[in-house]
Amino acid sequence: MRRAFSMMMAITVMVVMMGVSAMVFTLSNKIIFSTTTQFQKEQAILLAKSYTEFTIMSITGNSGITGGATCVDGVDGEIEGIKIGDSATGDVDSGMGYRVATRVSYIGNNITCTNARILDTNLTTNTSPNVIIDVYVEYRDANFHRNGDAPWITYHRRTLQKI
Question: What is the full DSSP assignment across 29-98?
Answer without folding.
Answer: HHHHHHHHHHHHHHHHHHHHHHHHHHHHHHHHHSSTTTT-S------EEEEE--STTS-TT--TTTTSEE
